[in-house]
Design a protein that fits this description.
The complex is a heterotrimer. By secondary structure, chain B is an all-alpha fold. In chain B, about 75% of the residues lie in helices and about 0% in strands. In chain B, helix 2 (about 30-40) packs across helix 10 and helix 6 crosses helix 13. The radius of gyration of chain C is 26 Å and the shape is globular. The chains are: A alpha+beta, B mainly alpha, C alpha/beta. The interface of B and C includes residues 41, 122 and 251 of B.
Amino acid sequence: MVKIRINSFFNRNRKKEPKDKNISQLVKNIDENLQNIKTLLDEPADLAIRKFTVRGSNHQCAIVYIDGLVDGLYVRNNIIENIQLETEKKQLPDNKQKLFDELNQEILSTTSLQIGYTLDDVSNGILNGSTVLYLDGIDKVFIIKTQGWDKRDIQEPVTESLIRGPRDGFVEDLRTNMVLMRRYIHDPNLRFKTYQIGRRSKKSLVVAYIDDVIHPDILKEVKRRIESIDTDDAPESGFIEQWIEDNYLSPFPQIMNTERPDKASAALMQGKVVIMLDGSPFVLIAPSTLGSAMQSPEDYYERWTIGTLLRVLRYLGAFIAIFLPSLYIALVSFHPGMIPTNLAFSIAASREGVPFTPLIEAFLMAVTMELLREAGARLPKTIGQTIGIVGGLVIGDAAVQAGIVSPIMVIVVALNAIASFALPAYSLAIAFRIILFGFIFLAGTFGLYGIIIGYIIVNIHIVNLKSIGVPYTTPFAPTFFKDWEDLIFRKPVPQLTKRPVYMETKDKQKVDKETR
Amino acid sequence: MKRFEYADEKISDKQILVAVPSFVIGIGILSLPQNIASVTTASDGWIPLLIGGVITVLITWSVAKLSASFPNQTFINYASTIVTRPIAIVLTLLFSILSTSITSLQVRQIADIAKHYLLKETPVEIISFTFLLLIIYAVAGSRIGLFRLNTMFLPFVLFVAVIVIVFNIQWFDPAFLLPTFETSFSGHIEGIKNSVLSYAGFTILWFYITIVKEPKKTPKMAAIGMCIPVVLYIFLYLTCILVFGNSVTSNLQYPTIELAKILEIPGGILERFESLFFVIWIMAIFNTTAMTFDIAVLALHSIFANTGKIKLIFIIGPIVYVTGMYPQDLVQVSIFGSFIGYSSVLYTVFVALLLFTIAKIRRVK
Amino acid sequence: MKRFLSILSCFTLLLLTGCWDELPIDERGFVIGSALDMADKNTEGTYDITLTSQFVIAGNLSNPTQDGGEDQAAFKNISATGQSSFQLSREMLGLINLIPNYEHLKILIVSSDIAREPNLFSSVVDGFIRDHEMRRGIKVMVSEGDAKDVLNIQTETEPLPSRFIDKIMENSVKSLELIEPVRIGQLHRYLLDEDSYTLPLLTLSEDNVKYEGVAVFDGKSDHQVGTISGDDLKGFRLIKGNISNGMLLFHIDGQLMIYEMNAAKSSIKINADNPDNVKISISIDTEGAIAEMFGSRSLLDQAYMDKIEKQIAEKIEQIVTHTVEIAQQELEIDFFGFSNILREKHYDDWKKMKDDWDHGDKLFTQSTVDVSANAIVRTIGSSDKAKDKGME
């Protein structure tokens, strides 16, 4: 069994029973039924109720839906019109139960149809975007899937743009996202398991996986954790991520998110699960490791040489993003002998007249950098650009001119910020930016000794970290040399024949050896 | 279907292969060339290093063999089977005390060297305190985490050692190797003694082999692992001799760090490589110290099974710190160091012989 | 969780109290060169020495003419007098607003007054070897006259005199009359092994400095015993071998000719069977080109070429023999490293005559040195001759 350190709150085992669950049965009288649903929802303005009689009989029936959640044309064409027109052509039974069955079997031409028995079913259906069809004298209803709300078109992902690669990205609508996944993988073993999240919001959540690839223990663990989620609402998949990750105190993201269906489908092929939440264009990939967070789909789309070089560049970027300012402080304040003689003299010259110690200087500049970034992200895109120019160029230049910071420090901080943007996973990049401040203080206290202490602390932390039971540092340690062929170096695609060994997939081989 | 189990608390024998050199490589090598060079002529030091290495590999192998013949049993358990429980408790307790003293020695020495090469003004107490906190944080985590740290750090350590050797080639003067085979017998004995002391790392095998999943191949792996420091030490020693000559090597306090001092990185990105070298070497020292501390905790934990691990850590921690800070100067530290060194080697050999013979006599299997 | 927080707060507290070593780079005064002079010789046998340190003024170094201001010196020399060099380096704290930092020290100049005093030299350089701040790559040299004046020279090509001298030291690869720079790490070995050795010698003329010749040190008594320069230095280099560039003047048929060596190797064999008459045979092989010639004979003549080569070899033998003679008779010091060869190759014999080699019985002066040389002229340059005889 996967041994997972379960966070204590998972054990409380709360029941997912909403307080006000209305399980009252439907009654036979249509008016009473309609009144009940109106009372339950407190007669909202967008609740549409249309009562009519089945043509050629005096059977009362009514449809109820929320205006805007349903496709109005679909409701008219397939429900109302059918009941009104189709019934003309045949003899309708008088018996209400028989009529109900006939409606079910022959008349309603909708693709998805369920039968509801309780007021709860009705309200859930309506709020989901279904249309409920009441028939007078019957204590059952038809719940017809008629979802048809306005949704965003499939667009290029904003946060993960590639030069080469598919241009489609996930959208807020869960069904569109499922369709996207289906279009990427036609495997009959692709499974979607649906959950409902949120005591009040009742959002749909889908766990996607490929059944004969994924290791059952991982799947079981993911399902167990999702079932343990106890929240009233989950507006974004970030909520899910923080609920189910192994260590919610860690700055490191143990579950990756992506907007790209190609990345998600690649993860499925590796034996991972993809978690999609309705209302969020960011799907979650679990388990994920430090190594996988440093990869980008584009590594595979271009030839292996550039793929490998890009990865090496990214590791270098990660190094700069974490260490550069602290290294600068350590060298300038503690170990000037390590700087080459001529460079040492020119740094000393450039620092002349700067009133702050390098520690304070670096701290000021790094905070300014964070401010600029935060401001740039909040502002509308067009102004955001201006902020970048004003902040980066004008303030930086003015600060140097005024003698508040040394020009080399500006270079150091700018390079550091650029490096952190070069990382493909934003959630990891922000983790690095947090750690950066720790390193700045350690370097300001102990110099290089402080940096190595910090490095060891971070390492101790990440080796004890797990993502759904998979050690975060796999395949570095525990070492799987087989997986190194697609880690920092990437072998040419035809040679990448195996799924990751560390995922212990059922189907180990990506390609059929015989045919090669 | 295989269970998803590599993430468990069990380790593979490959991790022992990494753990042994990680444990052995530490502070010892920084001053070892000086010890060896001062008792040998010219480059003859490689002979005692090699002989000492062979002896150590043999001891390692036999300790591992003995431990591995009781798979999945803790030291105290199989020692109880062989020599009754009270004696086993005493043996374990001694191991714990020994490990505690080694930890305090390391914590002290690293502070001394860091003060010499990195932080001249910072008090030793502060440097060792931060290092001890680091060790406590590491040990408070999972045990398998320590093994993963070994795997993460050992490549860096070996890499930086190789860099020091390779980039010093331009300073090599083969004349320093001559004359060969002129060392007296007593010099060789002294050298072997020094080298065995610096290789001493068998303690971990008594305790860590018990958590190896399939300990069948472990003795072989441990022996191979032991060869890594032997080879590395011989190379580093020869580099010291080739660069400095015997007379200078025997007069430098930390010849290995001085090697890094004269190294020039092509392109001149960084000067004074010795600071960087020592900083990376701290990773090696960290591994050694963390594992020793862990063994002190593990040994004590096997006696007092009811006391929690964290509690034990916080009991041992202050003891380590106070012991480490007790010696006043360098000479006292080195006396303390050699005392600890001798006792750890002799004690391991003693325990190994004791358990071996009694097991043979009583035919315990 | 509580425990975690308490550890965290302890750690932060620790960080806040810290910064013992923190000192920004602009508050450090980098010393790039140091000079040691004899100030006074006390009656009770102790010495007062003057340490002069050259501090770099970084601001004036990188942008010498800021705002059209005058050129300001990029360095400042500060002297202090006392008994130990280490103590002096600390005394400088009172003389300059910057904290002295010796991590970028490049050169150490010792005046020959100090060098000539027996048993003093190793003591004054000890601080430079022992202190961790000092590199093992500091170049050590001796100056004729006051060493601190060397640090004051004016050059147009380089704002820092120390760096100027540092670069000059590197020129040895191009000339036979200069020796390779001696680093303090190497000096440490000489001192420990009690080998005799040579250090570069600087002479001051007007306000320029000239590097010519070397100072010869006796390892046992630890002081400078003499200097050699010119052809004798060439001989020294040729015995040491390992030359990649250098030139040699010689005469053939009364005409001056210059031989440019591209490589020279020496191999020294010692026969130490008889300690009273150690036989040292040196054979030197050189390869090179004719760089310049007076006269107008064609060089494309095998017989003439052979003659030239023979002449070069003779010249080399003559130079080397003279150098050896100086060492054996005048200085009575083996600074060629023959003793090292004895120790390396004839360890048993060496143990017997260790104390009597260039001291005591002075076996070195009694040894027979046999020199043989072989020269090859590989090319003659791009032209056979500059002036044709036929034109006369």
